[in-house]
Every structure is written in C-alpha cells, then in structure tokens.
Amino acid sequence: MMKVFLALFLVALLAVMLEGSLATIAPPPWSPDLGLLSVISVGLRWRGMAMGLVFAYMLGSSVDALSGSLMGLNALLYLFVFMSAIFAGRQLNLKGAFPVMAFAASVSFLYGFGLYLVSTFFINGIEFSLRWFIESFLHALVNGVVAPLVVGIFSRVAVWAGADDSSERALYIDTPVRPA
Amino acid sequence: MFGFFKRMSAPIVLAILILISLASIVGDRTRVSRNDLPWWQGVLLEITVPFQEAVAIPAAFLGKTWRSYLDLVDLRAENDSLRISLSELKETNLQFREALVSSGHLDQIVDMRDDFEIPMLPSTVVGLDVNPFFRSILVDRGSEHGVLAGNPVITHEGVVGVVTRTSAHAAKTMLVLDRQSAVDAIVQRSRTRGIVQGRGSGQLAFQFEAQGGDVRAGDQILTSGLGGVYPKGLKLGEVAELTEAGGSLIQVAAVRAAVDFGRLEQVFLMLRRGPGMDLLYETGEFFDPSPAPVEEQVGTSDEDVVNAES
To answer: B128 vs A72: CB contact, 8 Å cut-off?
Structure first.
C-alpha cells in the first residue's frame, strides 16, 4: 500500500514539475493541468479514501508551493476533486477514453470555478470576466483531451508498484431477479 | 469503538485536512512577510528548478528553431516596417539630443545616470503557472544570487512582475497580470495617475480618476515610481480602449501589456527593491538610493550582473 502511494505521489510530483515547463512552451490555457489530472486519475482507481485524501492534500500543497496561488488553496480544492473522482468512479461507468475525457473536463471546469469562488472570498477586488470564463472553458477542454493518457499512466504505475488490477474498479449493477 | 473510528476515518481525515487548508489560506493572506519559505517548500523549489531547466532547455531550443528558421512568414514586410521605424526614431533621438544640448542639461543628466544605475541579474524562466487564474513564473536565480522577495522583475519590453518568494537557487515571481497585482502608474502623454491591476488574462486594467483624467487609446502607461516597488518610467503597456466611462468617479481603461508573456524566456531581476517592499518584508534594510558595489550586494560574478538604467 505504502509503495503504491509513494510511487503514485512521486509520479504526480514529477507531473506537476513537468506542467510548469510545458506551460513555457504552450502558455495557459493551452497547457494541461497535470496536477489536477493526477488527482483525478488516482481518485478513479484508488480504493482507500483516507490515504487518497492525504495524497490529494499533499499534492495540492506542492502545487501551492510552486505556483502563485494562496497557500492551501489548491490543497483544499484537490480534496474535493479527489472526492468527486472517487464517487464518480464508484457510481459511473468511466471505462473508456471518452467518458474519462468528459468527466475530467467537467471536473476541471468546476475546479476553475471553485478557484474563482474561494479566491474571491479571500482576495479583494477579484471580478468575474468573460475572458476568464472562456479561458477556463478552454483549459478544461485541454485537460479533458489529455486525461485518458494521464489516467493510463497512473494505472500502469499503480500496477507496477504492486496494486492488483482489481483496483481498476468496474461498474456492477445488480438487477433483482424476478421469481417466475 | 474501534469499528466506529475505522468507519469514520475518511470523514475525520477530510475534516482535519479541510481545516488545515483553510488555516493555511488565512495564514497566507494575513502574513505580512513571506521572505522565508518553510523548509519543505524550499526543498521542493530546489528540486523543481533543475528538473524544469532540463525540460525547458530542449523545449526552448525547439521553440527558437521554429521561430528562427521555420516561422519566417511576413519577415520581409516586418523588416521593411522596422527599418522605417528605426529611421524615424533616429531622427527623433537626434532632435531630443539637440534640445538637451541647447538647454545645457545634457551633462547633468549624464552625471545623474550614474546615481540611478541599478544592478540587474539575467535569469531564465523555467516554470509557469498553468492555471489561467493565478499568474506567476519560476526563475532559476535565488537568495544565493542576492535575490530578495520584493525585487522587481523586468525585460527589455517592460515590467514583468515582482519576486514573492525565494529559495537558494529559485525565485517565484508574481506577474503584473495576476489579479493580486496592483502597480502605481502614469500616462506618459498626459501624466494622469492611476493604478494598473492584473486581470488574470493577457490584459491589464488602468484605473484612474474620471475627473481631470486624460487617457486615450494608444497612450503609453509607465510606472510612476510612487508605489514603492518599481522604479519610475518602466513600461507597463499601451491603452487599448476605455472600457468603463460615464457617471462613475473611477474610469477603467483596458491596457495591452508591454511584455509578451506568452514568449517569456529571459528576464532581469533588479537587485534593489523599493522602500515599500522593504517595509512590507520587514527586513530592517531600508532603501538606499546610492549605488552599492555590485559584488558586495549580490555576491555573484561580474558577467552575471548587468547594470542598467532605471
């Protein structure tokens, strides 16, 4: 369990570092938020809720340390992103690239909106603008496109680190059998 | 009892982590001095910079190759236009020099220039915020090179931002585009004063008093030097349009940033910070307008440090 946790956290940390470099080539909103996608990937595959929350918090704090946001802001929002991913992984059939893309894009857009709401609460003078809305939408689309690749990488890393394939949760629907 | 705690472990962990996150945000907002990073953040920055440099160097090479050899569309037209601009600027420069010589002020200005030289450190941008909401960059110079939180960061085009935190070999810089950024500024033509605020996107907003304010599209916006952060006369941008006019006491103009933040690769760190930043970061070192020996101040080699006019 700990080996899987450490392996996933290390890969997620490298992804966060990489996203900063990628952004110098393709500036926002055209660069993917690999930190956010890492949390979504782990949320979709992770089974232990408490450890997953710690993972999301630690990664969010690392993103806060490297970015210009308020310390604790991404850590807070990553907790909710992880929760939404773990519940979506249980309730929805997210097998296949397109459902993952759609889910990641939706969560990414809501995450942007969450950033706006929490920042507005703590920082004076932040106004809503159409341009920001469009940029957040485009950023969500970019994240959606990259999401299946990131989810695939995290699944492979988890299996490599010792997690069994059953961690890739599938949807089981029990239909009641009517007596004849 | 044990079963209860096992069942409730996730909600308890979630509640604790939410409380810690909120406490961190409140702490970050209320803390005045952010000069010293917690040890783990310093370590993270120290690990990140070489990693991002290793990725950024081949990426920058590819980008430069594309721009220098492949993306040469309209180059001839641009060259012709620049030649015309250059000849016009030469003529204007000649007229200004002539006016200065005839007024007898040229010698005094040459003497003054020595007093206002600020040591500058060239630095490479190795990382950028991916979120469009917050705008910051990570550069590969830190406290070991004499960089302090509060040092202004510029390029040849204009103002980039201000250093907010440093580790030994890295510095986080908040861009002027960030929504938390506000710079005291003036319009070059009419000397109208106002505040340039970041909007998070590629544009800035210039807020000024409607009564007596004279701002038009195309006006150049410069730092006023009164905010205690940036020296006077650095270019912030050009007025694109007046966005809010009418009955309000405050008018707002949309400003195109002078710096092309999409292609930010090299920046200069000004190794002297303004009095406002000294007070903010509470180091006890107050702004000394007299020039200090470069090596004493920054502890770096001569070739690393470039002296430039403020």
So the answer is: no
> Which DSSP string do the residues of A20-79 spell out, in sequence order?
HHHHHHS-TTSS--HHHHHHHHHHHH---HHHHHHHHHHHHHHHHHHSSSPTTHHHHHHH
Q: Which chain B residues touch A124 with a CB distance below 8 Å? A: none
- The domain locations on chain A are 2-167
User: What whole-number distance in Å separates Cα of residue B185 and Cα of residue B309?
Assistant: 19
Name the amino acid, one letter, at B58. P
Rounded CA separation B299/B145 (Å): 6
- Report whether B222 contacts B232 (CB < 8 A): yes
CA distance, residue A179 to nearest chain B CA (Å) = 36
**Residues of A in Cβ contact (< 8 Å) with B256:** none
Question: Tokens at residue A111, please?
Answer: 């995450």
Does a structural domain hold residue B243? yes
Q: Which CATH class is domain A2-167?
A: mainly alpha
| Mutation site for A-interface testing, chosen from B41, B65, B128, B140 by largest number of A Cβ within 10 Å | B128
Rounded to 5 degrees, what angle do the CA atoms B60, B65, B71 make? Answer: 120
Q: What is the DSSP letter of B263?
A: G
As for how many domains chain B has, the answer is 1
Contact between B204 and B236 (Cβ < 8 Å): yes
Let me know if residue B102 belongs to a domain: no
**At B271, which amino acid appears?**
L
Query: How close is the nearest chain A Cα to the Cα of B171, in Å?
Result: 10
CATH number at residue B149: 2.40.10.340
Please give chain B's pLDDT, 310 residues, in tens. 556 666 778 889 999 999 999 998 888 777 655 556 778 888 888 888 888 878 777 777 776 676 666 666 677 788 888 888 888 888 888 888 777 777 766 666 666 555 557 788 999 888 888 776 778 898 989 888 889 888 899 988 889 999 988 888 889 899 998 888 889 999 988 888 999 988 876 778 898 887 778 888 889 999 988 877 888 888 999 998 887 655 678 888 999 998 888 778 889 998 877 766 666 665 544 444 444 444 433 344 444 444 444 3
| Chain A residue closest in CA terms to B8 | A50
* Chain segment A108-159, per-residue pLDDT in tens: 999 988 888 888 888 766 667 777 788 889 999 999 999 999 999 998 898 8
Best mutation target among A17, A19, A83 (most B Cβ atoms within 10 Å) is A17
Structural domain contains residue B77: no
Domain that holds residue B200: 34-72+118-282
